[in-house]
Design goal:
By secondary structure, the protein is of the alpha/beta class. Helix content is about 25%, strand content about 20%. It has seven helices and nine strands, in the order αααβαβαββαβββαββ. The protein has a seven-stranded mixed beta sheet, with helices on both faces. It has a two-stranded antiparallel sheet with strand order 6-7. Strand 1, helix 4 and strand 2 form a beta-alpha-beta unit. Helix 2 crosses helix 5 and helix 6 packs across helix 7.
Length: about 260
């Protein structure tokens, strides 16, 4: 399935139609807030790593807000990669305005060049990133080759269990039955959406987003197959953007994973 190009079109369209003012305060917040635009789990994971003087990267970096924020932890240099050219242009503009040593590159993550082999002390994927890739083993091989020996892969994302839950607005969602399971944990069919990436921009009949469900076993096994050693897995019942209705109800909603090279 050649879905990368249509996802690129969808992401660029969503950013062009982003909510008025969305992330316009990023340069100011980088100066006044501690690790802005991050959930508490990601903040804790990053603060638990010694990033001073290190070279760090974010794959699927969106408009750069998380990588730029992570530079507060005294990293030497940051590199962001994303398929959406307009998001990358925005990120480079913010980096220049804020005077931060970050470089952002527009590219297909699967085609990151060999010049980045063994370049980074940290590679991170954040909320919603790995769902855009059907073959996690191939994705993590790219991350692994870009890590220095001793480097760390960090993933902070929705828990795979979330893919079983109906979200508000869907026909199967029932606010009085939050234990209701709507979808298979082992779903193999891709998801198709045309809602414009609602957190950033909501408009009907957008270009099609294609995404994929992955089990926790898929994620762990793909990391191991890429030659990485699982160092830590933490699971939380904290919502990270899917539906506040499920927050704190004892369901696994998010996770962080650290794996070393």
């Amino acid at each position: 399935m050649d879905y990368h190009q249509t996802n690129k079109q969808a992401w660029e369209e969503a950013f062009d139609h982003r909510h008025e003012g969305w992330c316009d305060d990023l340069p100011a917040r980088l100066k006044t807030d501690e690790l802005p635009y991050m959930n508490p789990m990601l903040r804790d994971a990053l603060k638990g790593l010694d990033l001073e003087g290190k070279t760090i990267a974010q794959f699927c970096c969106n408009n750069g807000r998380e990588l730029l924020s992570a530079m507060q932890l005294k990293a030497k240099a940051g590199y962001g990669f994303d398929i959406a050219e307009n998001m990358i242009a925005f990120a480079n503009g913010v980096a220049e305005t804020a005077g931060l040593p970050c470089t952002f590159t527009a590219c297909d993550i699967m085609a990151i060049g060999k010049e980045y082999n063994e370049r980074f002390d940290l590679v991170m994927f954040t909320i919603g990133a790995i769902t855009w890739f059907e073959d996690l083993a191939a994705l993590f091989r790219v991350a692994a080759r870009c890590l220095k020996p001793g480097g760390v892969l960090l993933i902070n994302d929705y828990h795979p269990f979330v893919g079983m839950l109906p979200i508000p607005g869907e026909e199967q969602y029932d606010e009085n039955d939050l234990q209701h399971i709507a979808y298979s944990y082992f779903r193999k069919e891709p998801w198709f959406e045309q809602n414009g990436a609602g957190y950033m921009a909501a408009h009907e009949n957008s270009h099609t987003f294609t995404s994929f469900s992955h089990t926790m076993a898929d994620i762990i096994n793909a990391a191991v197959a890429a030659g990485l050693r699982i160092a830590e897995l933490r699971e939380y019942d904290a919502d990270v953007g899917i539906a506040d209705a499920y927050n704190g109800k004892g369901l696994p909603l998010s996770f962080t994973l650290l794996a070393g090279k």
